[in-house]
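Bench notes, afternoon.
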Amino acid sequence: MKIRELVEALDYELVRGSVDTEYTTLVCDNRKIEEGCVFVCIKGANFDGHSAVPQAIEAKAGAVIVSDISDEWPDSQDTAIIKVEDTRYALACTSAAYFGHPARKLKTIGVTGTKGKTTTTYLVRSILEQAGLKVGLVGTIEAIIGEERIPANNTTPESFVLQSYFAKMVDAGCDAVVMECSSQGFMLHRTAGFTFDYGIFTNLEPDHVGPGEHDSFEHYLSCKAMLFKQCRVGIVNGDDEHVDKIIEGHTCQIESFGFDKKNDLVASNMELVSTPGELGVSFDVSGLMNFNVHIASPGKFSVYNALCAIAICRHFEVPEERIREALKKAHVKGRIEMVKVSDDFTLMIDYAHNAFGLESLLSTLKVYNPHRLVTLFGCGGNRSKLRRFEMGEVSGRLSDFTIITSDNPRFEEPLDIIEDIVTGISKTDGKYIKIADRKEAIRYAIENGEPGDIIVLAGKGHEDYQEIKGKKYPMDERVLIAEILEEMKH
């Protein structure tokens, strides 16, 4: 392939050299520069790729794609210099071309919002697979390509990696891909270079605003809104107070879901379902589809997640019965994941790892009127102390009992972190115990569970490690629970 074909979707200025030569590969890592490659100069937090242009010219790279020009670069016609406004956007477009535009061969579904992205992607994948489609997934926990599961570093991978995943999905015979789209991913143009068939908006709350993320809530919102200028059909939570801002200037067809009667897909007659080991909800769907749904996941936000999945699956003409079956069975690792330990009380694992997530979860569970709501959690080391105070205060206010333990202490002492959490709890009347060893904390929770309790292990969710002094040690709460139950038999 010639360089011209690689850059055909870009507005660019050819500063020198030719785009009519063949190239070998596309790279954005200066350690991978080789003769004949096209090197895209990315400005990162710690390294600016533009500083490697002399290295690329020396190595006789086919081209460098830059946003800045320097007089100090070697004068060679062997390496084309291609100037663009934004090299991250250029990387996304050239990556799509490099892999043969794989997204065009898949039905692409992008999910954005503050909460519910992960659960919604797994729900959609579960229903579509039940209907006989082969579906890839890209998100916070992992990428799923056929039988292959690749642990995630970012919610939305770098554009080159994302396009490589799409290409693998096409090769694996996938029909569709459902992916989480983070605001950072939009801000850094990781999802540029193709058009989503379907864009989904779950909800919006103040989050990810601060150093290294978004400088304001307005900027955070505007990044999320980019999805609806990059998809064919937008499916949005019509009840969310920010929905009008999210779809402002949209270029797609819009459908809405929610409890409000004005939506295209409406939930009504919601009822809580509670049996030992399961908390769920049932409700009626009306509007674009009409049937009753039962899901084994609690609370109003579970209804929103389910509505979202129903709305997307309607476009794939999944039969109503298949949707109902799949919703009943679907669960997501580490997201309100019920683990059966007793007929007397309910225990669950959830990823809630900040005050906002914890408050939402505990408020949802209190509606089920448990005998006691018991919350076990810790906070990460080398992170904001404010998060510890806030989470302590939330748990003290909403839980009947809190078990404070360890969660990725990193380079801090677990007991110091625990004392910060106690500072937060002390603002409330909440009862608590401190048990630094997470396995022993879980053992205490199980051994002291009372009939009708709901016990939440919060913060780890899908994570299967504990990060201590720069090293990740294997630690999966499901494994710990199984070990504890086995030890309790003896």
